[in-house]
Amino acid sequence: MAYLEWGDARNRDVLVCVHGLTRSARDFDPLAQALCGRFRVVCPDVVGRGDSDRLADPMHYAIAQYVADMVTLIARLDVEAVSWVGTSMGALIGMSLAAQAGSPVERLVINDAGPVIARAALERIAGYLGRTPLFESIEEAERYMRAISAGFGVHDDAQWRHLTESWARRREDGRYEARYDPRIAEPYRASLPERDIELWPFYDAIRCPTLVLRGAESDLLARETAQRMAQRGPKARVVEIPAVGHAPTLMEAGQISVVREFLMEGGTK
Asked: Helices marked H in 36-184 — which ranges?
């Protein structure tokens, strides 16, 4: 599993940032740049994405595998506790890890995910997952990225290009392809539920301070679910990001500020 590090490697205040289903560690470049003066920021490519290896058996692309990989990563970092920022899939991994007895997660940011996952959103994602075409140019890849990621909200041209370049890579023949194993779609489609997925036992087991970010137009995290997350389990602080669906990219200054303020409340170890 590949990962990027920002800041002083001797810093014991570690922040782990984990991306969404088809994304990569580079999604967190702006957040890491903003926080690396205070934290040692570690951004992994979840297995099968970015620069990480791909699994021989695609059916192992599952949360249990990802959690085990993150436990190994934290052990490699040689720290007893970490703060965690997870977007979508990365948030579910963080929830699962934070729910464990003796969890190393001491502060948790859940970005547009939760213990109730809307089936309609899962079906929308299944519509494009693993079916990305080859692109003749980075500009063509960017047009595709803008289309499937409209929920990210308004971004300037430089931000869209960064989001594209962190998702696509150039092949030897000069064309571009998505930087994830298309076989992640196999277990995903095989496990599509008949109704919304409910994970309340995991959420209710979380004991650390928790921040929930919700895109105001999100189709994956319902407002009602976010409100319930404020009332049970770790009783999360909930912040809704206007004019954004699934999911806030944490590239905008306002979004970064919300995350920074929450993480800084943890003080210095």
From this structure: 63-77, 89-98, 119-126, 138-148, 157-165
